[in-house]
Amino acid sequence: MYELDAAVTHAINGLAGHSAALDLLMIWISSIGVPLMVLAVAVQWWRGPDRLHIRHVLVAAGFSFLLGLGINQLVLLLIHRARPYDGGITNLLIERSADFSFPSDHATATFAIAAAFLVHGSRRAGLAFLAAACLVTFSRIYIGTHYASDVLGGALTGVFAALIVRAVYREGSRADRLITSIL
C-alpha cells in the first residue's frame, strides 16, 4: 500500500517544476485556501432570508472545523509519519514543516467545512466548498508537503467531525437559538 501511496504522491508532485506560474498558483492556493474558506463561511452570517438555518450551518461548520483539527492533534500523538520530502518522494516548493505529515490539517479543515454544509442540506454551497477542498488538498500534494494518504486521512477526519457535529448540535435547540441570534 505504501508503494501506491508514494507513487501517487510522486506523480502529483512530479507536475511541479514545469511551470513557474502553476507552481506559484499551487503555493498560493495551499497557503491561502483555508483562510479564504473560513472567510467565505464567516461572511454568510448576515446572508439571506433563511438566516437562522444558514447561521446554524455556519456554526456547525465552525464546530466541525475545530473538532476535526482537535482529532488531528490526538492522531498526531500516536502517529509520527515523516513528510514525503524527508523520504525523497517529493520535491518541496515551500519551507519545511516542523510537524508530522499524517493527517493533513488543511484537508481536515477544508473537508470539515464542505461536509458540514452538505450534511446540513446546503448542497450548492457544500459542493462549492467541496471543490475548493479538493483543490486545496491537491495543492498540498503538488507542493510536496503531504502524501496522498495524508490528505485522504485528513478528509476522512473532517467528514467524521462534521457527522459528529450533525448528530450532537441540533438546529433549533436552546444552544443553537442562543448562538444563531448573536448580531
Automatic annotation (TrEMBL):
SUPFAM superfamilies the record matches: Acid phosphatase/Vanadium-dependent haloperoxidase
Transmembrane segments: 25-46, 58-80, 100-119, 126-145, 151-169
Keyword Membrane: yes
Cited InterPro entries: PAP2/HPO (IPR000326), PAP2/HPO_sf (IPR036938)
Keyword annotations of the record: Membrane, Plasmid, Transmembrane, Transmembrane helix
Pfam families per UniProt: PAP2
Phosphatidic acid phosphatase type 2/haloperoxidase domain: residues covered: 56-166
Record's keyword annotation contains Transmembrane helix: yes
Protein name as annotated: Phosphatase PAP2 family protein
